[in-house]
Amino acid sequence: MKRGKTILSLLLVAFFLIVSSNLLSADETRGVSGDTIKIGMIMDQTGPAAEVGIPYAKGVTNYFRYVNDTGGINGRKIKVILEDDRYTIPMAFAAFKKLVFKDKILAIMFCGGTGQNTALFKQIQDNRVPVITGSWSWTMTDPLKRYIFSPGNDNKDEVGIIMEYIVKTLKAKNPRIAIVSPDVEYGKSGVRVAEAKAKELKVELVGQEILAPGAIDATSQMLSLKRREATHVITLTTLGATLAVLKGAKSLDYAPMFFNSFHIFADEVTKIAGEAARNMYGVGAFASWFDDVEGVKDIKKVTLKYYPNMEPPNRYYVKAWISSIIAHEGIKRAGKNLTPDTFVNGLETVKGLDMKGLTGPISYSPTDHKGNSYARLYKADIEKGYFIPVTDWVKAK
User: Fold this and answer.
1) Is residue 165 assigned to a domain?
2) What does pTM read for this prediction?
């Protein structure tokens, strides 16, 4: 009987060890099976930022479709699962929980806007979910967060590059700079950057006008800036709201120089706004579909293979492609032993990744998760119907 009890005890110990090992393995390999890697996306598809979310989702989907058609990554195919947050924090939370606990994804692309990412910081950390964020705010990577990576620059870089361009390249005499932004986190962080940069450059920031992301009229904001004699207006809002800004300024015969952040300067503005956009510039963290660079040629080759009649997408399609290249690189470097943490470790070894003109070189480290600090200035070309570059890639100071 003693021998039987001993054997039973050993069997029970072995059973619990096996179960514990399986549970640990399941946790370590969330989103990864023998032949599949599951990646989630959280982004607006039907709300006020859908003009950003829809092309981004298409870009990620098309990139990984091509990867799968050419053999996958380390013998595994990529399954992409998209969730619509309608640009709201509650729906972003619901999407995050579904993707992590039901779909059991390895990582998330985009993860909503700045407010959504910020609200999810603790969940991302506690559940060890790598995120290649779409947020523009410097607060995504400063201070460092182990599981959050930015695919390029941030608003510190872009606002700084815009203001340096106004003062040092255009050599504007006594520029009176104003900001138009929404009363949300990415807008607030951009304003803080502009205020600091204005002090550094010793120029006057004459004020900020609040404009909601879904605004269709900005006449009162433009009237306020006209009265303050603002000569240069930096817009940090959405595409629709930017069109409202141009329309409002035109109705008041007000013609300052407009500078848009990457998130909102879209080539279609030149066609929709026409003459109202002639004096508009944009700072591009990522290249345009119309840029004559090797990386864009690669994107066109793949995209037009699947969709021969596809209309030229906006820059968020290119940003999605870049983010997907980065995710691909992290998965590849993690090797067959792919887990959320080996994925992060793989990304942290990326140094000077050549993006073939799509943006500046990408680098990460265990102490820096911002992809780069590069951007390029573009100006609206009404006759061509898109923005053309007026500088090469510039690294923010």
Assistant:
1) yes
2) 0.88
140 inside domain: yes
Residue 91 belongs to some domain of the structure: yes
In a domain, 9, yes or no: no
CA 285 from chain center: how many Å?
A: 10
Give me the number of domains the chain comprises. Answer: 2
pLDDT in tens, 227-262: 999 999 999 988 889 999 999 999 999 999 999 988
Greatest distance between any 2 Cα atoms in the chain: 99
pLDDT number for residue 1: 53
In 3-state terms the chain splits into helix, strand, coil percentages (rounded to 5) of 45, 20, 35
Q: DSSP letters of 142-158? A: SS--TTEEBSS--HHHH
**Over 80: is that where the pLDDT of 308 sits?**
yes
Reference 42, options 146, 126, 133, 125; nearest CA is 133
Nearest to 349 by CA among 336, 335, 360: 335
Amino acid identity at 18: I
- H or E segment to which residue 231 belongs: none
| Amino acid sitting at position 384 | K
Closest listed residue to residue 334, CA positions, set 25, 29, 21, 22: 29
**Distance separating alpha carbons of residues 80 and 33, to the nearest angstrom:** 14
pLDDT tens digits for range 81-139? 999 999 999 999 999 999 999 999 999 999 999 999 999 999 999 999 999 999 988 99
Which residue spans within 112-246 are E strands per DSSP? 131-133, 148-149, 176-181, 204-210, 232-235
At residue 29, the pLDDT reads 84
Look up the domain containing 255 and give its range.
Answer: 155-284+378-395
